[in-house]
Specification:
The chain is an alpha+beta fold. It is 17% helix and 30% strand. The longest helix is centred in the last third of the chain and has 19 residues, at 494-512.
């Protein structure tokens, strides 16, 4: 998988090759990333020309063709001649802001490296790790570039460890996780952007001269941009063209930036956002960046997405339900909001259990004096006015279902016992009144004492009754970020320390309650990122539960993240976000594009609707492995305004497939349509919904006459099974 030969490093995966080389001046150059090739030294592809206003390193002497400003670098420098996007910026004790890195050594090991306190892909002998040591001799700073290679999944992971070897203090002002120089221009840049209730919308545009970037300075990865991007050739689609997917395993401020330079070749950097970031390294101290991961697909988006999905499921998501089915849940929020008591919750459970639901989730409002957004957050003890006898009295009333609860540990209301006792625990800069979001403030999770207090309060709740599921929510962005425990010259560390504190809390939950299913949430999809999936196997995809809006949200999400990670529920109509009316059948089909559950008062449904729900739950359980672990195909795009949106899951052995289809706005006199499926075995013969006998190659190339339901927003599911 990894070949090392006199400064030439070649990383092979199943379908791709990645190569770099330490040149005559010990600059680590990037020589190739693309479809798998046999090997050889590809540095011959690098062109050396004299470019005016591109300075040359001192050791290049009279060679004006050798400039860091024009060479493809593996980890770009700062202030010494490369004017493109930097990967590293150091502030030394003399006030200089320079970083000049040269190759020093390498180490090759079996297995996958780990990152202390940070999420990372994991695995055993199927991985190899390459560590390349770069050194800035003047600054006495070592930079270790860590590469993990998972051959079967075409996955290359990257992280960076920066160590101060000097006797002086060094400050990091910028530290990217990934730098990738592309030899070819003419690429498209795909990002996944939006807002609360319309997350991860697919956006594509040509890379143009200058710098384009997406990112977040909100303290979370955000609803607005996602730490996953794609660079691809203009002809790339689901099945053709070259594409490069890059994802950052991080849940805080991030930046993905692309610069097309004077040579019309792009550079991609991905890592912690430099906004309000700095990190002080005392002598001997080190800093580790979050992990980034790359997948290159020579054959379009589908291959890339499927490889990400498989790698996430098997090597990132630590699922306590691994090897068995997660429960179908019912959540009370949209049914009751804050206005409930034990009898109301029990009534919802009594209606849900006979329909096959297995987990009851009690949402916001069960703790403190929590009757609205204005009070209670931070007081993690049961509100016995609502729930007499506490959770111990409620659990036996839930018809034998498992029990889950909602929490928001990072937040505090000013009207709470916690804030009155510890107002300094919330982010609040000196001499300033703090901004509020949803009438709450943010606790300083960079502080160990704050985290310890909240964690112990939660433990008292979790230890009193068997809770099998926790929904961890976070309902505002960070402001007034200042910590009383750090001096003025280290306040630039607070954003990152906050994220490390969050990871510490969730890791403690995982260790102390190993069977607990943790679902992430931040106003829906405000922290839907690969870093969070290391701790929470599923994330609430969006607060927008409208089935038609969800088609676009789940479509964008699917380019990187597997269905098993996508929290999706059937909710009541008219929908709370947009007032749309959609049938129970269609709402169920769309929710099966995720983890699947319900969020409504089932006592308000008709007997006919309850029968539909009963069938949906049974169908989902029967086909759970196919839906959650099957290879995912986007058959159409909801962005094309076509007559329908369709997607497909295919079992690994290709003997089963499920196609789900939802109509859009239908017109009169629609033309005849045939649906061509993907991923089947051409040598097998399939029944469709138990009928017919269709060869796999016929279904894939000629198609199946498409049953178009009557009316807008209707749905069809087609189950293919080999005979």
């Amino acid at each position: 998988m990894i070949l090392c030969d006199k400064g030439l490093f070649t990383l092979h995966t199943k379908h791709t090759t990645y190569q770099m080389k330490a040149d005559r001046h010990k600059v680590l150059l990037h020589t190739y990333y693309g479809p798998r090739i046999s090997g050889g030294d590809l540095s011959y592809l690098i062109q050396y020309t004299d470019r005016s206003f591109s300075p040359c390193p001192n050791e290049a002497e009279a060679d004006r063709t050798y400039s860091l400003d024009t060479l493809p670098q593996e980890f770009s420098t700062c202030g010494v001649g490369d004017y493109r996007l930097p990967s590293l910026e150091l502030e030394l004790d003399d006030g200089s802001h320079l970083a000049d890195l040269r190759y020093a050594d390498f180490r090759l090991e079996k297995g996958k490296y780990a990152l202390e306190g940070l999420p990372a892909f994991f695995g055993g002998s199927e991985w190899e790790t390459l560590t390349i040591l770069l050194r800035d001799t003047a600054a006495e700073v070592d930079v270790e570039l860590l590469y993990g290679v998972l051959e079967e999944r075409d996955l290359i992971t990257r992280a960076v460890r920066i160590c101060n070897r000097s006797s002086r203090t060094v400050k990091l002002c910028q530290a990217a996780s990934l730098c990738l120089d592309f030899p070819q221009g003419n690429l498209d840049f795909i990002t996944f952007d939006g807002a609360h209730a319309k997350e991860r919308c697919f956006h594509r545009s040509p890379v143009r001269p200058g710098v384009e970037s997406v990112g977040s300075v909100r303290g979370t990865s955000s609803h607005h941009h996602n730490p996953f991007v794609i660079l691809c050739t203009p002809d790339a689609d689901e099945d053709h063209g070259l594409c490069f997917g890059a994802v950052l395993l991080y849940s805080g401020n991030f930046q993905a930036a692309v610069e097309q330079n004077q040579l019309e070749t792009p550079r991609l950097t991905l890592g912690i956002h430099p906004y309000h970031f700095s990190w002080t390294l005392a002598p001997g101290e080190s800093f580790t960046t979050p992990e980034a991961a790359l997948i290159c697909s020579p054959d379009g988006f589908t291959q890339m997405s499927q490889q990400f999905h498989r790698a996430f499921r098997d090597h990132l998501i630590r699922d306590p339900y691994a090897g068995k089915r997660r429960p179908v849940l019912i959540n009370n929020w949209e049914a009751t909001e804050f206005h409930f008591d034990a009898s109301k919750l029990a009534a919802i459970a009594r209606a849900a259990a006979p329909l096959g639901m297995e987990l009851f989730v009690m949402d916001d409002g069960w703790f403190g004096k929590r009757d609205s957004d204005f009070s209670g957050l931070g007081d993690w003890f049961v509100n016995e006015d609502k729930l007499p006898g506490g959770l111990e009295a409620l659990a036996p009333q839930l018809e034998g279902m498992d029990f889950g609860i909602w929490i928001e540990p990072e937040m505090v209301n000013e009207d709470s016992e916690l804030y009155r006792a510890h107002p300094d625990w919330a982010f609040q800069a000196p001499r300033r009144a703090p901004a509020r979001g949803r009438m709450q403030l943010v606790l300083d999770f960079s502080r160990q004492d704050v985290r310890d207090h909240i964690y112990q309060a939660l433990r008292k709740v979790l230890d009193r009754v068997k809770v099998t599921y926790v929904k961890w929510d976070m309902n505002r962005s960070l402001t007034d970020v200042w910590s009383a425990t750090l001096p003025a010259d280290r306040q630039g560390e607070v954003f990152h320390r906050y994220v490390l504190g969050l990871y510490d809390m969730q890791e403690r939950l995982r260790q102390d309650y190993p069977g607990l299913l943790l679902e992430g949430c931040s106003g829906g999809g405000g922290r839907f990122d690969a870093g969070m999936l290391y701790y929470a196997p599923q994330i609430w995809c969006s607060d927008n539960t409208d089935a038609i809006d969800r088609l676009r949200i789940q479509y964008g999400t699917s380019f990187c993240y597997p269905i098993s990670a996508v929290g999706a529920h059937v909710s009541a109509v008219p929908n709370a976000q947009n007032g749309r009316m959609v049938s129970m059948e269609t709402r169920g089909v769309v929710a099966m594009g995720g983890t699947f559950g319900y969020e409504m008062d089932l006592n308000q449904t008709s007997e006919e609707e309850r029968e539909v729900i009963r069938r949906q739950v049974a169908f989902f359980k029967e086909h759970y492995d196919l839906i959650q672990r099957g290879d995912y195909y986007r058959l159409t795009s909801p962005l094309d305004n076509g007559p329908y949106t369709a997607w497909e899951q295919v079992s690994p052995d290709r003997r089963e497939a499920l196609v789900s289809l939802v109509t859009g706005n239908l017109r009169a006199a629609e033309p005849f349509r045939a649906l061509r499926v993907k991923g089947l075995d051409p040598a097998l013969v399939y029944r469709v919904n138990g009928e017919g006998a269709y060869p796999g190659d016929v279904l894939m190339h000629a198609g199946l006459p498409l049953p178009m339901p009557w009316g807008d927003y209707q749905s069809v599911q087609l189950y293919f099974q080999a005979i």
